[in-house]
Amino acid sequence: MTRTSRKPPRDPAQLSGKPLAETLEPSPILHSETEDWTTSQDLNEHGLSFVPEVMQDLTLYLLANPNVNSSHLFRADILFDSEGILRTPREKAQSFALTGNANADVIASTGGLNGAEDEAEVEPTSARDVAGFTLTRTIVRRLVPRNPKLDRTLDQTCHFYEAETTAGIEGGCRRSLVIYTPHITKEEDIPYYHPTLRSLAYLYDYNQTTINPNPTTTEHPSQEQTPTPTPGPGTLTLHTLLFPNLPITNRLERTLQALLNTQIRLARTTHLPTPSSSSGSSPSINQKHLGANKNPLKDNILPQHLVQNTYTRLKAKYASDLCQRWVETTEPSKHVFEDLSIAAFLIELWRSMYGVVPEDDRSPPTTTSPEFPGFVDVACGNGVLVYILLQEGYSGWGFDARRRKTWGIFPEWIQLRLKEEIYIPAPFSDAVVGVDAEPEPSSPSSGASPSSNNPFNLNIPTHTGHFPKDTFIISNHADELTVWTPLMAALLCPANPSPFVAIPCCSHALSGAKYRYPPPKGASTSAKDQGKGGQEEEEQQQQQQQQQPDSGDLKALRKERQDAQATEAGFLKSMYGSLTAKTMAVAQEVGYEVEKTLLRIPSTRNMAVVGGRRGTMVAGDAGVDDSAGADAEKVFGKIMAAVQRDCAREGGVEAAAKIWIERARGINKGPGMGKQRGGSH
After folding, report:
1. Exposed site from 287, 310, 345, 361, fewest CB < 10 Å?
2. pLDDT digit string (tens) for 430-441?
3. Which residues pair with 594 in a beta bridge?
4. What is the per-residue pLDDT across 289-341, written as a single tens digit (0 to 9) for each?
5. How many CB atoms lie under 10 A from the CB of residue 243?
6. What class of enzyme is it (predicted)?
7. 235 forms bridges with which residues in the sheet?
8. Hey, is 78 helix, strand or coil?
9. DSSP run (H or E) holding 200
10. What pTM does this model have?
11. Which helix (H) or strand (E) holds 662?
């Protein structure tokens, strides 16, 4: 297979090949009697075709997301924006509070604005007078490191300048300048993640010279549009203000080159909209680089800073101890950090929904939180997530078909809340009990009554999901229970179904058998429409199952799947995307208001489906309306319709129930299914 080479961000022919220190020269726009600004031909890239709007919006994106340039950083919190466009952490928290059950006052009173209390106290540094340029905007940001034990936060002022445009019949020159100044007084104050500089500036010069009648000669030939200004030569230059008598190290030189490379590389992936999608005459880019989050599914339910602050606290509190005492054969760091991330998301989600807070934040400290309805972690695996949530003061428990070795490292009171039990969905239990079940006595160690807990000839206790009302259901990579999650939550109380979060992983049918769901119709159908098309989707199954590349090239197949998942439509066509869409469709069908969000966890299976977050059900043709009390009978009818439709492929509900029970026996006996291997989850 021929490997396609990727175009390097910069032209190597333009580089001198000399050490940067030997090529420095005074900056023609910033050098003054009081400040020795420098630049270099090696920090200069000519021949760029990006219009200034691309570079400006990309600059805002990188300003809010410094982690793109440094893996040591989590994010940047905006403390001040002279235009009032980029929101501060406090403003974000207040805005998100309005989308949940808790209002902004509740969020503030429970500590939901943590990390924002000092933002009003930070003043921007004084703006420089730059000849020929006008100051247009001032932003102050706080760089937040991943590990606060190693690095401290750093405040930084960003001044934006524009030069007077030299306009004419054939166009003109447009110049934009951004100066970044850290709030420090000496070199020793610079954190490791920041270049050892007093200030850094980006200058972009763009010459717009002629009108191009042929749009196919531009950098984006796919855009068919009326004649537009031809992208003339653009030049991006870095200017540096060094500390006196401080030599340029190899690390600093590499950092400056990397900053240029990143700016150019990301600019190449930014596309201008077609004329029909543009709201005005001036060009603007798509939402990928709008100074916030490039992915609309990230941080769309909770503010990034709240979840990351909580994750940082949990990591410092639990990570080292859990990794040191890990007893499974799998690598501990992935599972521990993943569960810490999910716990942080849940803690902030529950703060928004119920106004409850972790035990450490309660005043006075208490051991219980009466406002919280409790949680259950279905297929809890290693139990780490249950352990963290219980330690944080949230009441709940977890169950799994097999006890894990990890359970033994937890305190006794935690182990009592981790149950080795098998979930038998109520529709399956009703279909099987009385048909062919002749229960045998369960083992003495199970503690279950054959008549009440174990009528399925299994060696461990079973249950049908009769949890306390309003229990929050967690389904974290629960495989066979993923699509059952919204049904389990709705069956708990059809008149007022419980909220849930499901994080899909491996795809299974309701019978528990491995199954690849076909993509939703059109691969872009909304969740509401997906709920109506369950029966039609089965017609696509045979052509979707067991797809293999014609060439047998596994690398080609992997590349194809990665490319396909780069878009929303491509994601829905993947097995994982189709499973996520199916879970959302089932939830929507039984009346949930359902959302999806990308979690910041170290896993490619990082999509979360959240149902009932706002505490209301969507009114549909069944008349489901939480304000008047849901019609339990009609909701139950919709649940059974979904179950019967999905089980028809297995020969009906009773046949699917027998498959489920037989597979449950196999799971309990030992590993053999994806998540069971290695004792991970």
Report:
1. 287
2. 988 754 444 443
3. 611
4. 444 556 777 888 999 999 999 999 999 999 999 999 999 888 898 899 999 99
5. 12
6. transferase
7. 205
8. strand
9. strand 199-212
10. 0.80
11. helix 653-669
